[in-house]
Design brief:
203 residues; mainly alpha; two-stranded antiparallel sheet; 8 helices; 2 strands; 68% helix
Length: 203
Amino acid sequence: MAIAVIAAVLLTAYLPSSIRPESRWLLAIIGLVLLVLIVADPGRIDRSTRLVRLLSRLLLSLLALSAVVSTALLIHVLVVGGELTHSASRLLLAGGAVWISNNIVFALLYWEVDGGGSVARTLSRPEYPDLAFPQQLNPQLAPPDWRPMFVDYLYLGMTNALAFSPTDVMPLVPWAKITMAVQSLISVAILGLVVARAVNILA
C-alpha cells in the first residue's frame, strides 16, 4: 500500500503543468502524511483511532480529487489542443501516468471502503461483503481465515480499468457498482482519446 501511494504521488508529480492540478509540494505533503499513517503502526492496525481513520480518508479523497482533475485536464487538452498534443511520445507517457494514477487511487478507495474499511475487516469478517472475491464465493479455494489484501484491490482496479467491467470480483452494493462504473468510464475515455490522438499525431 505504501508503494502504491508513492507511485501515485510520483506519477502525478511527473505530469506536465498543463494537466497537473496542484503544486508538486502540496502533492508531496499529502503523500508524506499518508505514508506516515500507513507505516506508523502496521502491526496493530486494529488499534487505529477514529481521528487517524478520518485523516486517512480525507487524504485519500484529496488524492482521488487530484486524479479526477488531472483526467479532466487531460481530456480538455486532447479536445481543444495544446502543447502536449504535439508529441505522440509525451502524450502517451502523460496519458499512461494519468491512467495508472487513477487505477491506484481507485484501488485505495476500494481498500478503504469495502466492508467498512481495513480496520473493520481486520477485526471481524463482514457478514455481507460489499465486494465478492472468488475466495469468498468459493471458500474451498482459500484458507479458512482468508481476507483480501491491498494487492487484491489493486488487481481489481487494474482489471476493471482494462476490461471496463467486473472480471472476477463482483460488486454487490450500490456504492461498489457506481464506483466501478465511474472507473470504467474514466478508463475508456483516457485510453480511447489518448490512443486516438497519438495515432493521429504519428500519422
